[in-house]
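Researcher: I'd like a structural prediction for the single chain below. Treat it as a standalone chain; there are no partners to consider.
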Amino acid sequence: MNRKHLTLQNTLAITILLIGVIGIGLVIATDFTYRKVAYRQQTDSVNQLIAIKSADLIKKLSERQKELGFRLQSEPDFIKAFESNDKKGLSFWLDQEFNRYYVTIGLIKLEKVLIFDADFQLVANSDRGIEIASIETPPCDKTIKQVRILPSIQRTKPKSQLCEYNNRPLLSTVISIGSIKAKGYIQIITDPAHILTQIETELGIPLKIYNKNNELLHQSINWPINDDVKKHLINRYKLEDEKSTVSLIISGASDITTFRNHLDATRYKVILGASALTLITLLFALMILHRGLQPLKTLRRAADSSARGEF
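Model: Treating it as a single chain, here is the predicted structure.
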């Protein structure tokens, strides 16, 4: 029974081709791994930028809230209404806060203003803004509770923190009425999601902002949809309050079309180079093998001729 044996040339060719295929496979695997690492680093970088910008914007918002509270105290009629416990007059002045410069030009989205006495009892609140379901549980009351347990000297220092009311993330700032001894407190509540939308223009990426229950609060008009999503890297950053509880989720979409095209071009060049190198190596090896075996072939032909009696 005849059996076909691989020649030395065929064996060498198959070996070189197999090594080339393995090399190309390693290139593809390396490219896949590098992409995962690069995308993860890109996501982490964007999250760090969002974290920095979020902290900066929240700080700006709290400073503006403090300024609103200080300006309100500078109104003699407000102080007069507060000292006389004129709830109607207080509500009028609290509603006027919605007409302040920061509010009217959109730097602040004011949600509610409340007044508490020195014993932290609710005295009055603005008619404008979010509805209060129960006077017993005013919005962001945990800020008031935290100020209440502070020593008297520390209560005069403004306190700001993220909070939640009816599944809405808010920013609460409490300012004391009176600089030496607190006669009462002003609580100014704003919508932090409103100012966080500025991240879009500052970082140049479209945004989605959710509450902690993943309910959409804001979406950029240029947020990628359908096939465009594949051209973007989506990241999610969780903005937490002082107790490390998630308050807001900020999602950004970074356009990676150029980066991906660069990776694709690099991969194709490497694969093409590896393929060309494999073929060149194969041809070079076969050429050397052919030259090396030529004397043996000549000797074999001579031996065969001698065996047949040919000289």
